[in-house]
Every structure is written in C-alpha cells, then in structure tokens.
Amino acid sequence: MVPCDSYELDWERDRASWPLHEASQFVRSQGLLWHVQRLGRGPLIVLIHGTGASTHSWRGLLPLLAQRWSVLAFDLPGHGFTRGTPPAGLSDTSMSAAVGALLRALDAEPRLLIGHSAGAVVALRLVLQGGCRARGVISLNGALRPFGRIGHAVFSPLIKGIAQLPLSAQLLSWRARNRGAVESLMASTGSRLRAEDIDLYWRLLRSPRHVQGVLQMMAQWDLDAFARALPTLAVPLAQLVGSADRTVPPLQAERVQALLPRAQIVTLPGLGHLAHEEDPAAVAREIVACAGAWDV
What we know:
CATH class: Alpha Beta
CATH topology: Rossmann fold
Radius of gyration: 18 Å
Largest sheet: 8 strands, mixed
Number of strands: 8
CATH superfamily: Alpha/Beta hydrolase fold, catalytic domain
Strand order of the largest sheet: 1-2-4-3-5-6-7-8
Structural class: alpha/beta
Shape: globular
Oligomer: single chain
Number of domains: 1
CATH architecture: 3-Layer(aba) Sandwich
Strand content: 15-25%
Order of helices and strands: HEEEHEHEHEHHHHHHEHEHH
C-alpha cells in the first residue's frame, strides 16, 4: 500500500523557512525551472551541491564567500525546488550540459567552480565538456572515482533496479518520515550536524520527487568513463578532503592524484563528508587560499 500522507516540497509554502530564501529566484532554461540563489559582487564563483542535497547545504559557506565574490548556487535537476529533467536524463554528462545551459541563460562566466561530492563531478565534467572557462575547480570531498570494482559491479545495477521499481521513491520518502532514520544517515557521513541542519535533510528526503531524482542520478552516472576523461583536465584542481569522511574515503583523493598528478590535496582535520556544513569558516579559508593562488 502506498502511504497517503507523503510530503512534497512546495516553494510557496516552504520559502519563508528555507535558508537564504531572500537570494532565491527561478530561471527557465531548456525546459527546466531552476531554483537559483545568488549573493555578493565581483568575480563569479559557482557552488554545485552533491547527491541528495540542495542549495541549503551552502547556507553557512555561501555568505562567507559572498564577502569577496559574486556566488551562484542552484538545485540540481531532480533535486530540491528545481523542476524538470534534461532530455538525456540525469547522467553526469547530461547534468553538466544542463548546468552549462543554465549559465548561458544567466550570462554567467564563473572564474571558479566548487563542487561537493557528486557535485565535483558535475563541475569537472562542465570544464571537460567545454561548457565553462573557469580558472580552477575545487572538489570538496569529491566522489570522483568508482567505489572499487566489486562495489561498482554490485551496487550500480542494484540502484538502477531500485530506481525503476514502481513507487520506490514514495516508499523511501515514506521511510524518511522517521527523523531518527535521517539522523542516522547524516551521522554515517562522519559529520556532526546541528539539529536544524538535519531537519532540512529530513524535509528533502520526505519528498518523493527529490528521492526519485536522487535514485535516477545514482543509477545513470558513469564514473568509469569520467575517470578516463579526467587526465585531460587543463585547469588546476584542488581536493579538499575531510579526514573523518565516511562516505568518500579520503584515500580516493590519492587515487585521483594518480590520474592527475597536478591535483592538489588539502586535508580538513576532523571534518566529515559534510565539512562545509560542519565548519564553513574553515572551508572558506581554504577556498580563499586556492582562489588567491589561481588569481580568482
């Protein structure tokens, strides 16, 4: 039986309590209606969130960066308040192309791309596909490599199967009604979040539309193909790595560096996968240092 009390995100209802809602606007691009936030003045920096998140994950970091730059963030397709799906689906190449189209619609030319987790793949794909002429990319606990041959072989088909099951998103979002389950999920990242931070993820994960977007994104990505393309990256890459990250093992950064020897590794001591939510000031300091080295 399908739960009849499912929760769905609604901007008119939720905007007053959504982080940085005063900086929000909605932009149409190639059939998608994007939820976009922008603050600050000066050279443009773009923030790209990871799987299952939204602009809310930048609520602490974005205002700090906006003291120096113009900062743009948005909900990826299938996530948060953005509506619509790119014609080619939610693969990493399709999502990156959609982001490139959004930047063109906004007449935006970023100097720096910052991606968290899977958002780092989107950022790097955007550069690799020629959709952006940024001076550098910062990967924040980037999920840039497949999770080993066995994990990739088993979990990728499993996720694809779950994503195609009827009502799977409704059932998973119904499970997320239990706030304790969401709290445990956040703790499993190695990050220590405040109660109000967890509440925002709780709201997102109770949305069947959001959960369906997450499932489709995980099912359609091809990190093996991405890894083959990564050595051709022509701009600097800095990897900010939380030493306590339990979602993307810190050793993954070394595997990326083996493919791209110029890729810098910066350790964030004691921080987990959601480092930018745990300690925005510490992450901002490292971003400022990288940006200064790249003349952003």
